[in-house]
What does this fold into?
Amino acid sequence: MLSVSDAEAIILNLVQPLDHQRDTEIVDLFTADSRILATPVTSPLDFPHWDNSAMDGYAVRYEDVQHSSTEKPTVLEIVEDIPAGYQPKSTIQPGQAARIFTGAVIPAGADTVVMQEKTSRQENRVFILDTPKPQGFVRYKASFYQAGTQLLPAGIKLNASEIAVLAAAQCPQLSVYRRPRVAIFSTGDELMTIDQPLQPGQIVDSNLYALAALVRQSGAEPLILGIVKDDPVALEKAIAHAIAIADIVLSSGGVSVGDYDYVDKILESLKAKIHIQAVEMRPGKPLTVATFPSTDAIYPTEAMNRVSTNSPLYFGLPGNPAAVLVTFWRFVLPAIKKLSGIAEGWETVFLKVRSHDELRSDGKRETYLWGKLHLIDGVYEFHKASGSNSSGNLINLAQTNALAVLPMGKTLISPLEDVQVLQLSNG
Ligand SMILES: Nc1nc2c(c(=O)[nH]1)N[C@H]1C(S)=C(S)[C@@H](COP(=O)(O)OP(=O)(O)OC[C@H]3O[C@@H](n4cnc5c(N)ncnc54)[C@H](O)[C@@H]3O)O[C@H]1N2
Ligand code: MOO
Ligand SMILES: [Mg+2]
It folds into this structure.
């Protein structure tokens, strides 16, 4: 059986990122947050655009004020008032200064700003009471960014700071990757939609809701295809349709060894290449990952509707509700990140934190235990969810925000011992 990290590497290897020309759209900067930039941005503007003052005070020639003190102030004549937004008209001559405000243009001739608190004023004369640093409080043209060089690279997620940079660089619209399309369906004769009355043996299809939420949180677009019966014909039709409309397909259930677990058999009959069938992890052992090298030949009608020229990546997630969530976080999320055009950092990252509780595993599979990270005196501590860690139990997954990981062979983590955790974005 494959180790979890080998499975992640295989999956990431299979993912073809969206195309930086074909798979893009133009969005308004106000709606661009969390989108992935598709084209590098350069600006014709320097930052700052011109030398400007970092303080309210006086623009001076350093030469004039280099021996100033409270006892021996330098006295300068104020020749101009320069608020922010104005272009100075005068050139500061020896013995002169300009009144200046934060963000205003430094006048020609001046090279240093003295903050207001280090001065005193008498009509049009200013007394410099302290020697400033040469070039002090001047924000020089192009000292933050030089026009024509790369301002932002492609493949980054746009958060508030990047959006502020793009606004300052006068980019009201930009090219971002389209959202990856992720088709989701559930398999099982026992599954009912949320609004149906339940007969004995029946349960609500909760995986569909969980996966739709996870996909949306990842920045992708969920295509919700509903419930498919444990019936080979229905399943084949559903898979063929899903791979025609999506970049990634997520099914849940039907990947174990039971008589009604048809997913792998149907994938084989569709000539899919199955890369993964089981992973050494708990929960989440039966996990199927497949690609479709030649879908167009098998399903010409569906192929006409294809939205992507990439081969779709198929995840047959195990049906148990906890297994669905854990395998999504551990394997599907990195795949969506790489697909979405993010240039790097797709792999799962772990934090080392202190465990509050005793954590146990049989040591036979890499074990994921759900719980909550609490901040104790500024240090994260992992508290295991109380109740059953059965992969069929979804109730105590609510209100958790982390998964603690016990590697293969590790059977015990004692209270106050360090543990690796995967921090979940739903915290
Ligand atoms: N003989 C073996 N049996 C099982 C093994 C094994 O190695 N040998 N593995 C177990 C593990 S681990 C898991 S995980 C499950 C995976 O099973 P399947 O992927 O085949 O899923 P199902 O059998 O269809 O369902 C399992 C379980 O999950 C419930 N379920 C399914 N879909 C949904 C849904 N959409 N919403 C809510 N709950 C769902 C289903 O009712 C079952 O209880 O196999 C073990 N068995
Ligand atoms: O993967 Mo299964 O979830 O261990 O029950
Ligand atoms: Mg099964």
